[in-house]
Design goal:
- By secondary structure, the protein is an alpha/beta fold.
- Helices cover about 20% and strands about 15% of the residues.
- The strands form two sheets. Strands 2-1-3-5-4 form a five-stranded mixed sheet.
- Strand 6, helix 5 and strand 7 form a beta-alpha-beta unit.
- The longest helix has 10 residues.
- The termini are far apart.
Length: about 190
């Protein structure tokens, strides 16, 4: 009994429980993102919002930290595969943010909007961080009727990252597929 009393008295308060709001504070930037309507993804640049931490706030990140990654997704974003924590710390934005539904980029205050030549990134918040809105982000799901078959993975990746790829209008397939069904004029699809 003395040993148990001694251990408890020695280590009392050493491993305290901490309230979640002290570990994961809801900052004004997080509140801003949480207040935005619709279903969208975000991405943090540098050491801001490492992969998966945004889940705590109910936000969706384009990255993941899982030893079981989808190889094609990782290869599309980074050019290689096999890193269990790919894009954990993101320093360079991939060119495929629109089809990934990435609407907001959280960056250090010193950041400037990515230079894309088309003003698609608009600064919408500046305080402890800067948040850019990607005005060309696509919805989580959409319908297209044009297909392009590219069987070589390297060629497919180059096309997907190139300026001629229009993700809102076509899909790139790595295998033969039946021809898409073209709806009659005036028909509106809904996802």
């Amino acid at each position: 009994a003395f040993v148990i009393f001694d251990l408890f008295s020695q280590w009392m308060g050493f491993q305290t429980s901490v309230r979640p709001e002290y570990v994961y504070p809801v900052t004004p930037a997080i509140q801003h993102l949480q207040s935005q309507p619709g279903l969208f993804r975000i991405v943090g640049v540098g050491h801001l919002l490492p992969a998966d931490t945004s889940m705590i706030y109910g936000l969706h990140d384009m990255r993941g930290q899982d030893p079981i990654n989808i190889g094609r997704y990782e290869e599309l974003l980074t050019g290689s595969k096999g890193d269990p924590i790919f894009l954990f710390w993101l320093y360079k934005l991939p060119n495929v943010l629109e089809p990934l539904n990435v609407r907001y980029i959280v960056a250090p205050v010193s950041a400037i909007p990515p230079d894309t030549g088309d003003n698609r990134f608009k600064e919408v918040y500046r305080n402890e961080v800067v948040i850019f809105e990607n005005r060309r982000a696509l919805p989580r799901a959409w319908v297209v009727h044009k297909t392009r078959e590219i069987f070589d993975p390297i060629e497919a990746r180059q096309y997907l990252l190139g300026r001629s790829f229009k993700p809102a209008q076509e899909v790139v397939l790595s295998e033969h597929s039946p021809k898409p069904v073209i709806p009659p004029p005036g028909f509106a699809e809904k996802v």
